[in-house]
Write a structure and sequence with these properties.
By secondary structure, this protein is an alpha/beta fold. The protein is 37% helix and 16% strand.
């Protein structure tokens, strides 16, 4: 309770009615939306994929990224191997919302997109909650690569998802009840 609200406030989907939301001591209302978009990357439990090629889905929002950068991001996201096994590889069209891929494959495509963006702040909102154990293990490895050298906010119900965190904040009914 309250976790999605925290994400919505950080992304400025809406502003707080009282108090402030700060990143590195800056009130995010004083930061331009363009700057905020450039410095934040999201990996959500609901994957946002388009009826386009895998390459275009990874490159989404970064049209200047070359094929080598796209493939490097896919390798770090543990997606390159399954992509290369598809009939058209990186040119494979995945259907609306990625329906031609498994849940774990869709997540790894979204992680590759976030890796390619290389934003200094990462928000993971229940990024592994809908995955089976095998897919979750692959996605956890990809997330470890993604979180390296960046500030990461992980929203999760499972403690195993956040066991490597520097700081854990526990929320209940919209309030912070514990930190450690």
């Amino acid at each position: 309770a309250g976790k999605s609200t925290v994400v919505s406030l950080l992304a400025r989907f809406y502003d707080p009615q009282q108090g402030t939301v700060q990143i590195d001591g800056y009130d995010i209302r004083d930061v331009t939306m363009d700057s905020l978009k450039k410095n934040l990357a999201f990996v959500d439990q609901e994957t946002f994929l388009f009826n386009a090629s895998i390459k275009d889905n990874i490159r989404y929002g970064l049209t200047e990224a070359d094929d080598q950068a796209v493939m490097a991001a896919a390798r770090l996201a543990y997606a390159d191997e399954f992509i290369r096994k598809l009939p058209d590889g990186y040119e494979t069209h995945i259907g609306d919302r990625g329906v031609r891929l498994s849940g774990g494959q869709r997540q790894r495509i979204c992680i590759a997109r976030a890796l390619l963006k290389d934003a200094p702040i990462l928000i993971l909102d229940e990024a592994t909650s809908a995955l089976d154990t095998e897919s979750e293990a692959m996605v956890q490895k990809a997330l470890a690569n993604l979180m390296e050298n960046r500030t990461t906010l992980v929203i999760a119900h499972r403690l195993s998802t956040v066991n490597h965190a520097d700081k854990i904040v526990v929320m209940d009914n919209g309030s912070i009840v514990e930190t450690g």
